[in-house]
Amino acid sequence: MRTFLCLLATAICTNFTFRWLMINDSVEYVDQYLENWLLSIIISLTYFLLFSHLQQRLFTKQEDNEQDNP
After folding, report:
1. Hey, where are the domains in the chain?
2. How far apart are CA 34 and CA 26, in angstroms?
């Protein structure tokens, strides 16, 4: 379930990143980005690692609080 939430957040943020690129750059320039699979993989992987790290910190903090306050 946690991995699914990370993947969902990754997909949403990657989509918004590409939409932001389309708004702020010319369409031809963004088409080059969209065709570049390496860039899309790097962006998706970066978001996934970020969300995984944040999720790990959040659940670790919750578990620590549960152990401190039984």
Report:
1. 2-68
2. 13
